[in-house]
């Protein structure tokens, strides 16, 4: 006796659903993010320790969805350009297109995060904010490879040493110690880093004078290579989801990094060919 067409169709549907549930889910696409030492965003990634804000952001991105698996790949400030061009990493985060990316094909995604670079000097009885108005004749302690607005974003060591009497290091802590010990007159650090430094070293806060003058406002972008497994638009939507859920504020507000709206009247990704 033949079954009814409805019963047969029902059995086929159930069998199909059962087969689908047994199929392995599609593997998440791997997205490699370059991690260069840039405290407090990324702290000594080559050591393997998950410290800094970038690991927290990656954890939140992975927890929010299953289409992509974001992983960190250690790089360095000078090497990150070549790593992206050669495909060793798919994305650089906490960047700005003006920091040496202009001639490198990429898509820039506004992250809706703002920080600032400020000047720091030793606090002395007669020293006022006017001390920071003119850098001529002062010894500067700078982070090697960083692009500073006062130097027209020229990061060449010879240029900075010749024109600004600069000492270049790979440690903000070292630069602040140079100021405290009188070996440099001014160090430049991010506002978020200085806030973190004072939390770690509360006794020195009264010994340092932070400038009202801002060298540059960091409006952070993600820089994606053209063949990245995730599009600029898709990554922008993931960040918006973290913003809507309050995760971005939870991660960045303790470091006084502003979470700002991304204008909806602008296209999310900006492509440079």
Annotate the secondary structure layout.
Elements: H1 5-22, E1 29-35, H2 53-64, E2 68-74, H3 80-85, E3 91-95, E4 106-122, E5 140-143, H4 157-164, E6 166-169, H5 172-180, E7 186-190, H6 191-200, E8 208-224, H7 232-245, H8 247-252, E9 258-259, E10 269-272
Parallel strand pairs: 1-2, 1-3, 5-6, 5-7
Antiparallel strand pairs: 3-8, 4-7, 4-8, 4-9, 4-10
Walk me through this protein's architecture:
- The protein has 273 residues and is of the alpha/beta class.
- The chain folds into two domains: 29-115 and 218-272, 3-Layer(aba) Sandwich (D-Maltodextrin-Binding Protein, domain 2), CATH 3.40.190; 116-217, Periplasmic binding protein-like II (D-Maltodextrin-Binding Protein, domain 2, 3-Layer(aba) Sandwich), CATH 3.40.190.10.
- Helices cover 30% and strands 26% of the residues.
- It contains eight helices and ten strands.
- The protein has helices at 5-22, 53-64, 80-85, 157-164, 172-180, 191-200, 232-245, 247-252, and strands spanning 29-35, 68-74, 91-95, 106-122, 140-143, 166-169, 186-190, 208-224, 258-259, 269-272.
- It starts with a helix and ends with a strand.
């Amino acid at each position: 006796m033949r079954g009814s067409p409805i019963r047969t169709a029902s059995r086929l549907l159930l069998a199909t659903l059962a087969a689908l549930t047994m199929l392995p889910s599609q593997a998440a696409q791997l997205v490699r993010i370059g991690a260069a030492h840039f405290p407090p965003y990324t702290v000594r990634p080559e050591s393997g320790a998950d410290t800094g804000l970038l690991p927290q952001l990656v954890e939140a991105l992975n927890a929010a969805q299953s289409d992509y698996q974001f992983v960190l790949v250690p790089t360095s400030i000078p090497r990150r350009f070549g790593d992206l061009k050669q495909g060793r990493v798919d994305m650089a985060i906490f960047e700005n297109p003006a920091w040496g990316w202009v001639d490198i094909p990429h898509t820039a995604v506004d992250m809706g995060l703002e920080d600032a670079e400020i000047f720091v000097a030793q606090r002395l009885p007669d020293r006022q904010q006017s001390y920071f108005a003119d850098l001529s004749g002062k010894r500067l302690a700078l982070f090697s490879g960083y692009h500073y607005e006062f130097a027209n974003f020229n990061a060449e060591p010879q240029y900075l040493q010749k024109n600004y009497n600069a000492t270049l290091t790979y440690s903000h802590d070292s630069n602040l110690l140079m100021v405290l010990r009188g070996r440099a007159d001014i160090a430049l650090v991010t506002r978020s880093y200085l806030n973190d430094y004072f939390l770690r070293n509360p006794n020195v806060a009264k010994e340092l004078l932070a400038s009202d003058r801002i060298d540059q406002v960091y409006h952070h972008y993600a820089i994606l290579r053209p063949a990245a497994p995730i599009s600029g638009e898709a990554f922008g939507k993931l960040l918006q989801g973290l913003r809507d859920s309050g995760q971005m504020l939870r991660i960045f507000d303790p470091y006084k990094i502003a979470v700002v709206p991304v204008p909806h009247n602008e296209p999310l990704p900006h492509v440079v060919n």
